[in-house]
Amino acid sequence: MFFRRNADLDMSIYQCKLGGQCDVNAHSRRSCRSCRMKKCLAIGMNKEFFRSPHSSKHVRRQHVNDVIQLRNKILSRATIRPLNLLSNDRSLLNLEQWSLLSNVLHCYDAHCPISEIQRSMAVYSMCPPKHRLKVAANNLMVTINLFFSSVWSFVEAVPHFAELPGTDRRNLIQRNVHQMGALNGAHVCQEGKFHDDPTNQGVAIAEYGASLINYMLKAIELGSSDRTVSKLFLLVMSFSTCSDMVQPLIDDNGQWTDYSLLSDPIQIFNIQNLFVDIIFKYMIYQSGYTHASLHFAHLIVNALKQGEFIQKAQMNQNHDVMVQTIIHGFEQSLIIH
């Protein structure tokens, strides 16, 4: 406090009676103001380090004002949400479901044809312009073949499908191969942006016609932007059945006794429900119940819209021959195994 009180004073008016030789200590410090000030300066005290008067109070007051303003700003924007258990539901998958989801995604990525398609595109992009269209046309059916074959290689690698009897797997392939190939093609194009390539569009239009390709482009745009959802939905659709596959004969006790095509449709229903449960809980986890419901309904609608593309695509002889070849190849692999 001594240094603070006297640092700004003119100390020349204070003269040491002992010629500046005072011993300044705790007992004698009050006897000579001049020597006491010299000792303060000698040990490094500096008046430039003084805080301005009342600065700490000013800082605290400003901080309090800032906190009050921030609180009022937050309260003015806050809204009290109604207690709606459905819209606020944030259901989580259990550990087993998370593990299955992760394994399915890794399995799909292992069979995904994107890198192979990118390599083929890189090859024809380096060709001279007059040869580029011809090379791309030759690659078109190869690319579409990958859409179909890769998705079923993925499905066959999933244990739930591999555990089914061979006849059930064969019937599911025959039933769903067109739908699965179209859905996987839309997913791969959306992720790889292959449909944006003018050369690809040109050769596809030449093969399938402009109206069908334009419809397919719209279907690609309507696809889910969540890649995880798209991959899971492919698996859900792979276990899809129809009425002509499940025709129960009911005995006198009301029990199902026989089926026309599937040996155990209840097992297939349970598998499909398992993945439906996972995909829906995942969407709830991502965006809440309401958005998950709308998202799932959108997936179903978009899958139904694919039906028009599938029916028209089957009218293309090259396309139909390719799909039948894929089906035959998978049937042969089932017989071998």
Automatic annotation (TrEMBL):
One Pfam family of this chain: zf-C4
Domain Nuclear receptor: 1-52
GO molecular-function terms, A-Z: nuclear receptor activity; RNA polymerase II cis-regulatory region sequence-specific DNA binding; zinc ion binding
Keywords for this protein: DNA-binding, Metal-binding, Nucleus, Receptor, Transcription, Transcription regulation, Zinc, Zinc-finger
Alphabetical list of Gene3D superfamilies matching this protein: Erythroid Transcription Factor GATA-1, subunit A
Domain of life: Eukaryota
SMART domains xrefs: ZnF_C4
Alphabetical GO biological process terms: cell differentiation; negative regulation of transcription by RNA polymerase II; positive regulation of transcription by RNA polymerase II
InterPro entries: NHR-like_dom_sf (IPR035500), Nuclear_hormone_rcpt_NR1 (IPR050234), Znf_hrmn_rcpt (IPR001628), Znf_NHR/GATA (IPR013088)
PANTHER family: BILE ACID RECEPTOR-RELATED, NUCLEAR HORMONE RECEPTOR
Name of protein: Nuclear receptor domain-containing protein
Protein's organism: Rotaria sordida
Taxonomy of the source species: Eukaryota, Metazoa, Spiralia, Gnathifera, Rotifera
